[in-house]
User: Fold these one by one.
Assistant:
Number 1:
Amino acid sequence: MKTLKSVLLSVAFILIIFNCFSQQLAKNNQKKQFKDARRFVMYSKYSTALPILLNLQHTDTANVNLNYLVGLCYLNSESEKEKAIPFLKNASKNMSQKYKGIKLNENKAPFKTMLHLGQAYHFIYQFAQAENYFVKYKELVSDNLKEIKIADRYIEMCKNGELLLKDSIDISIDNVGTIINSEFDEHTPCLTTDEKTLIFTSRRRESTGGKLNEDGKYFEDIYISNKVENKWTNPRNISSKINTEGHEATVCLSADGLELYIYKDDGGDGNLYVSYFEKNEWTVPEKLESNINTPNNETSATISSEGTTLIFSSDRGNGKGGKDLYIVTRLPGGEWSLAQNIGALINTEYDEEGPFLHPDGTTLYFSSKGHNSIGGYDLFYCELQIDGTWGKPVNMGYPINTTSDDVYYVMSADGKRAYFSSIRNDGFGGRDLYIINFLSLPERASAVIKGTIQMEGTTEIPKNIVINVNEKKTGKLVGTYKPNKENGNYIIILRQGKDYLFTCETPDLIFSPETISIPDKSAFQQINKPIILNPIGTIRKKNDKH
């Protein structure tokens, strides 16, 4: 009997020891998991940290530190920011200025919990609630001018949102669809003037090399799709000459569709490149000159329809703050001028990005975190003034702009449609491409002149031929345009209500100029203008088709 009792006592003792050991092992494992998750948070790898923190929080729901970190991860997600609110509310029950967050059992949260709660409510358009939290945060950090400035900016964005939501614009916004958009990010759409070809950036699984970035996303590649019978074809990798195992992203496309400007991440130094469509394929991208590219980051650009003006974004040190927009013009020798800051009326102390110059040359669209943004990047436009300066930027309003980032906006030549990228509830994953239909805006009073140039009696296209377009009344050069070398197709976008002189020129010969009149119809026009070149030096034209 004593032997049995001794055995039972021994077994019980072993079980107690084993249980204690298991608990200690589990505790040590939790500490390791927390340490790993905290490191991921420090390096902004929120999506990697979140499942670890959720698992830890599930076993200790009252842990203030875990609630704060889970809320922080949700707040930094692309589409689940609202889920941060209950966790941050739990964390706000015990905030401390002495918060360090380095230990699992630290049952405190930082004052910044109030700021993050405001950000979460701001994201879901509950601006009054958000303002309350931002005001409370200011009270907690009353001696920190930097943090007060951040809170004040959010309060300002809430007030902007309240005003813009009261005056929403009459548009429809539709997802471009699953043929183009995937479960991964798509952004920066570039379209030909006839909207028949779409070139865009995607971070889908088929990325060249299949590498993942630090944020857990595939590297960026460029894809192309064509519209056939009013439907987009399946996107295809644009070219192995363009896409590499690194980052390549679309920037802009020339009006004639023959020059594609792209962004490449050159080892952390973002630069702008250009590829030319020649002999039915894209060339190896060439890096733009050093007066455009610097050791800093140049990330986006737009080129005017005549190819003489380039506006781009850069975070070089002489700006107004963050990323600014800069402008260069093409010099007579073909090189670009020195870059000039586009000015304080457009650039702010915050970031400006994604410029798009409308084909008619009179309206500049761009995204900014400054001005009267309602949150993140908002889309703005400004008009070219008579004196050649740009007017005051105007917020494009709700529902185009959201509390998230709305960037990379391009508009159709007639002004009735626009394409941009955004994260929205009806998306298919990450950032998607959307199309806006402006239901109440009139068509733009511009004209697209397109056609084919060839020599009389042959299909030959004169080598190195260009079209110089001048205003007939003033003689002012509007632009010099290059037709497609292979098929002679050209496209020119002009303002209405003027007479223009079209002069075709090769290095050896100047053909007789021809007057082309564009009536002022106050609506968008497309004019087909085939041009037959007479060897004697005269131009004989076919009948125009309006």
Number 2:
Amino acid sequence: MQYQVNAMGKPCPIPVVETKKVLAQMSAGDTVTVSVDNAIAVQNLLKMAGQKKLAAESRTLASDHYEVVLALTEESLAAAQAPATEEAPACIPDARAKGTVVVLSSDEMGSGDPVLGKALMKAFVYALTEQDILPDTILLYNGGAKLSVEGAPTLADLKLLESQGVEIMTCGTCLNHYGLTEQMAVGSVTNMYAIAEKLMGAARVVRP
């Protein structure tokens, strides 16, 4: 059976508490889809899923609309159906560095050997996912637009960053120039006005 929890607009820890109540009614093989409006709620739900050994995945539908799908297995049944009145896990704080914008203007990092440059850029984007403090926004333009499309070696890490609340914005003119418009697979398409606005309003700009 498939269950739904609409926790849009509800503050922590309500999405977790309401989801626990539904889990208490579920049987092995059932799933529950939880709708929330912020990435912090997603993190809290995924943390709870890990504690209860649930299969879990998250997806971003819009900048203010996320879904977390939890699946109950025989192994996780007992843990998932622990009383819903137990103390809710602490709310995870927003781990983004306010006003920090990362600019990726190439699919290579540094100059010299292109193969090495691409490997370094892949490593840099992965390293961002491991930081305790994440950027607010990642801007991708010129050759950097190649990093957010299907098949890009950086795609999975950019999707992970987006699921954690990082805004991913790719230049639409750049995608069109490289013939990649239909292949963009993470974040949103943006324009030069929005890029200029982000850069002018940034407290700090990071350019690897």
Number 3:
Amino acid sequence: MTAAVKERVGGWWRARREAARRDTGMSTAEYAVGTIAAAAFAAVLYKVVTSGAVSGALESMIGKALDASF
């Protein structure tokens, strides 16, 4: 490798390392937002599944499945 190529590649690697250092807290914030979104989705899903209409439909389907003859 020539000196010019080594310098260019080395400069690219230095720039990548410095960019990575500047984003150190980014993944933690993204995980926090994802966790909050998942918890909110779980709360909405729980409310829907425990509502009267959905609960009755689920009980009906489970009852039909258990009473099926083989």
Number 4:
Amino acid sequence: MDKIQTIKERIFFFLEKRGIKKETFYKETGMSSSNFKGAGLKSDLGVDKLAKILNVYPELKENENLIWLITGNGLLSLNSDSKKGQQELNLHNEESTEKLGDLLANLFAQYNTQDKGILFIQSQISRIEKKYDEAILQQNKYLEEILSLTKAVVK
């Protein structure tokens, strides 16, 4: 295999070996494709952009991969350690997803309980309002009766 000349070319080699599309790389790193085409492919990659790439693809930070990326010396290693780390990350994500699911189930149960409580309180308020309205009507009838009796006595 011919020696890959620039960091940008080595990045493309890495992407190819990992099965990552260039468009995905541009989106994940926030970089423009014009930096990786034509004369831009031969130009230097700024430290800030390199740091961004290393943050997005942490397996490139591994000692031998970092040396390969920067100098071109050595070999790109996509060994089982990276896969092991990815598997651990996936396991952690599964555990987090499971915990999140449990939390959502608990929240849903609390919501249902509170919702039923609110419905009960609303029904009690409606019942009390109905009794209140009936009491006001009855009171008005008594007041009208007292008023009519008072008028009859006054005459």
